Amino acid sequence: MNPGMKSLVNGLVLLTFVTSFYACTGRVAEKPNILFIFSDDHAYQAVSAYDFEIGKYAPTPNIDRIAAEGMRFDRCYVTNSICAPSRATILTGKHSHLNGVLTNRERFDSTMVTFPLILQASGYQTAIVGKWHLKTTPMGFDFWEVLPGQGHYYNPDFRTPEGIIRVKGYVTEVITDKALEWLQEKRDKTKPFMLMLQHKAPHRRWEPGPGQLGMFEDVIFPEPGNLFDDYQGRGTAAKEQDMTIDRTMRLDYDLKVWVDEEDQGKERFSGRLAEDQRALWDAVYEPIREAYLKGNLTGKEMVRWKYQRYMRDYLACIQSIDENVGRVLDYLETSELAENTIVIYNSDQGFYLGEHGWFDKRFMYEESLRTPLIVRWPGVTGSGQVNDDLVSNLDFAQTFLAIAGADAPDEMQGESLVPLLHGNTPSTWRNSLYYHYYEFPGAHSVRKHEGIATKSFKLMHFYNLGEWELYDLEKDPDEMKSIFDDPAYQEIIPELKKELDSLKFMYGVPVPTLL
Ligand code: SGN
Ligand code: CA
Known about the structure:
binds calcium ion; alpha/beta; Alkaline Phosphatase, subunit A; 4-stranded antiparallel sheet; 2 domains; binds 2-deoxy-6-O-sulfo-2-(sulfoamino)-alpha-D-glucopyranose; 8-stranded mixed sheet
């Protein structure tokens, strides 16, 4: 039997077992609901619950509400910092080399066992609305309406079981409307639910909604200290990437300043806007363009200007997410669902907000490896709790299954976070996490690498370059200088390499040359 077939059969056996168990016990109705709110490229630095220098970027009061009434995880790392792989890891609880989605290019094998499939068989009503990005048809969902590919910000199309539909409006609001409509009118209310509400925003090209366009034009955001990083303390990969604000970020396409008005690209970019939307858009971006043309900026001044322009649009996209998170939280309150609903806020990976001079993600350096994770579970998490254990998006599937009282198949590779949510971290909890990025050659030219993160160190292996990097996270939290060759650290290196090997053995990672 091939592995796909085998996991389908395993899944079916499990489904039969779980279904008959719950049919006999009739316990289904007591199960907590699970609401997984997920965004795309939302940096933890841009969640004000994580922003220790209060007001540094922009407030996210509604997301913060989940943290104030729940638990904030300060060390949630992803297994592979890019979109489709992250989603495949979350669904399957398996690392990329086993779930088959190593990069954004592969199709997700929908015969694999996923947590929604098991929850559905355990008596849950399951739904996914928004960005999916796994190419295949979603399986294990009673209701699904997803964006094709990356989706569009304005007047988005949705793939539905009945075909493609187009909805006029702004994507973050439309996705929320659909999720609320399902919660209110479309689900079977005799069953607990698991809803994946998955935003497109704040993904590149950072198009703010009509209510947020231009809202930060008068604000100057603080620059990160390493905006003008020269990469001297790092290896070849950091020097040769293609993701700098300086060289990679485009004035027109990313920052909406079309220097040449006749540029055909402009039409392609904003051609999707309806007339009323375009009027609002032009009212904001035309004056910006005029001011830019008068500026004659070059060198560092140009980078500074681009950074501000980037942040204004990126953070404006997040304002709409935050408002819409508020709408959903309010709905849970007014419909008396809040008490029995676990709310999770997370993003598919982190993002650079100018740190190292970058935007985008992919690297194992902190800002892209780490993702926001905030969980509110009434009666369990307590309020305003903070957890700094090493946790991962690999853990989500088993966590959701444990919440539902369903067994996780042995092939899942994470750990349930339920004890941590109760405030009881087991003494045997992991002290390192495995990471592997594969998409090279590809957009932004980040070289393949694998490595481990502990609470104190990060060891990275850019194996096709034959280069290692090591960072002391306590002394050098910004990861500016690899100390792999520093004599003071020679003792720790064999220990970390051994730990890396044992994680690879445990997870069944093929040797890199076979990938
Ligand atoms: C697009 C973006 C890239 C981004 C990838 C992957 N370019 O290609 O900047 O890295 O998606 O993002 S864009 O001009 O089309 O926006 S991911 O979140 O889907 O992995
Ligand atoms: Ca993403």
